[in-house]
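Wait, can you check?
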Amino acid sequence: MLAITFLGTGTSMGVPVIRCGCTVCQSKDLRDKRMRSSLFVETGDRSFVIDTGAEFRLQALRAEINEIDAVLYTHSHADHVMGFDDLRRFSPLHREGIPIYAAKETMENLHRIFNYAFSGKARFPTYVHPDPRPIEGPFILGDTEIHPIRVAHGQAYVLGFLFRQNNCSIAAYLSDCKYVYPESFELLHHVKTLILGTPCRRSHPTHMSLAEGLDLTAELKSERTYFTHLSHDFGHVTTQKELPQSCFLAYDGLRLEL
């Protein structure tokens, strides 16, 4: 069992964008209201979040998240980490600290930004108590194998994640990605559900455009693809009509049971 809830599907600026009067930003369709990108993943015996953006508190309340076993970070850009402090409400559930999984470079940045928590000096019950788990290869959470997928995103060190159960590649999440390295293609090939960040229609130096994302999903032969990390380039209704039958725009609050 693997269930994925999209806590947020927006870019670093979110949607609506401050001071923007475009059609999407003024839309009344709730699917066009996008908080910063994040996922909540539930398996048969574990639950965890991927990234804690600026609205993590609001996202956790909306999704009624009452328990998490770990936090996974893709990278340390502001729109993916600045809700870290709101993990404090989950600290009482973890006497030894909340397991925090991240690449070495990302963990170092988290330590620098949130030194009060990672230094171990602030161990009060109401503070965040992180238990750093640097990602050096595949790891296990309960009955789920998690394979880190390194992707190109400008100069940042970014990880995607592939989730496998019973020798089956159930889902993969690549949030901020311009290019998938060749060594990752074999792992991702024929993944059942691909979740891919495609913020723009135009070409972008550090992100895939929607056209590039469609090319990638065709190359990987995924059964279905959900596009996330979306800017105000995309109105939900009009964009969905443009997509192949196996491709979908994700939206905040969408839950997939895979």
Q: What stands out?
A: Residues 200 and 209 are 5 Å apart (CA to CA). The chain has a mean pLDDT of 95. The domain at 2-14+29-257 is CATH 3.60.15.10 (Metallo-beta-lactamase; Chain A).
